[in-house]
Amino acid sequence: MSKRSFRIALAVVVGTLVIAIAVGVWIVHRALAYSGESHDGSGKEIEVEIKSGMSFPEVASMLADKGVIDKPTWFRMYAMWEGDTTNIKTGKYQIKDDLAPDAVLKILVAGVKEKTTKVTLPEGKNMLEYFALLETAHVATAKDLEALARDKDFIAKHGIAGDSIEGYLFPDTYEFRLDEKPTRVLDRLITRHQEVWHGLALKHAKELGKLKDKLNWSDRDLLTLASIVEKEAVDPSERPRIAQVFVNRLTFSSFKPHRLETDPTIRYGCEVPTVKSAACQAWDKKDRLHRAQLDDVDNPYNTYQHDGLPPGPGKASMEAASSPDGSDYLFFVAKDARNHVFARTLEEHNKNVQKYQRGG
């Protein structure tokens, strides 16, 4: 190659490089300038969802399709310049359609501020009532929560014996994200229950050991008793005595048959199980129990008709079930809206019923 040809080739290469650099500088400059230009929009909010696994080019294209930005390539270049193509957060956003691209990118990098709500799950409610409260608070649907609560694999994962997680949801005030996954909701309630129960088991280890040996009970049996106590007691101070009444009914030789004879278990059997007896199906849960429900032998939770505990609570009731007060009462009846009067004999109990329930 002659010197003249070499010089021409060199000039072409240098010229090409200069042009490429100039074009690159212009593109970068234009992309940076573009980032501060307001988008032509009306100011309305547009819902944008960044899903897990989306690449930044997919995000930019989606934003353009939604009308949030108009130059996805320049938006990508600006994000690359800022080093933020891998810093955007997943979630659902409400982004105005007249923002500058740099403002849009800042929103995606900052992430969605989680919306949460506080929900109080009171003592004395069954799991379906808890699920209704959670649905009302927009935490999760009652249908999805119930399906998971009866799911065999989910129940087994938590080491729960039974056909549902009833009795293993701790009543308390919780803060949940809106539209939370049902698994996370129930995991949290069960975990809180286990924390409280293990603490009480350590605190009352001696009493629990004696009670389990005396009645041949498992932890689930104690929790079942706690749930019944929780339903019956209004005044917290009465819980240990009510728990003792039920233990006495199951153990005293003078009290036969050994039946708990408590209305809340009948109501539970008519409300919660998926398979219900004919008498339960005919009952309006807004109404009081009638003779048909009290005499219903097909309801396995009817403690007037079946001996022992029904098929498998708050902390105070769990503690009361773990440590009854040691009294020898066998009966109790409500004397007002809050408290009960206790009796050792059926004759004494009937007098109390006459006095407090039938106007003396």
3D structure, described in words:
By secondary structure, this protein is mainly alpha-helical. The protein has helices at residues 3-35, 56-66, 72-82, 101-110, 127-136, 142-149, 152-157, 182-203, 205-215, 219-232, 239-251, 263-271, 278-281, 291-294, 315-322, 346-356, and strands at 45-50, 91-96, 116-120, 173-177, 331-334, 340-343. The strands form 3 sheets. It has a two-stranded antiparallel ribbon with strand order 1-2. Strands 3-4 form a two-stranded antiparallel sheet. Strands 5-6 form a two-stranded antiparallel sheet. Strand 5 and strand 6 form a beta hairpin. The model has no long low-confidence stretch (mean pLDDT 84).
Distance between the termini: 127 Å
Q: What is the strand tally?
A: 6
Number of helices: 16
- Determine the structural class based on helices, strands and strand pairing: mainly alpha
Unreliably modeled segments: none
Mean pLDDT over the residues: 84
Helix content: 40-55%
What percentage of amino acids are in beta strands?
A: 5-15%
Strand order of the largest sheet: 1-2
Order of helices and strands: HEHHEHEHHHEHHHHHHHHEEH
> If you compute it from the alpha carbons, what radius of gyration comes out, rounded to the nearest whole angstrom?
34 Å
Shape: elongated
Largest sheet: 2 strands, antiparallel
Labels describing this entry:
360 residues, mainly alpha, 16 helices, 51% helix, elongated
Topology:
Elements: H1 3-35, E1 45-50, H2 56-66, H3 72-82, E2 91-96, H4 101-110, E3 116-120, H5 127-136, H6 142-149, H7 152-157, E4 173-177, H8 182-203, H9 205-215, H10 219-232, H11 239-251, H12 263-271, H13 278-281, H14 291-294, H15 315-322, E5 331-334, E6 340-343, H16 346-356
Antiparallel strand pairs: 1-2, 3-4, 5-6
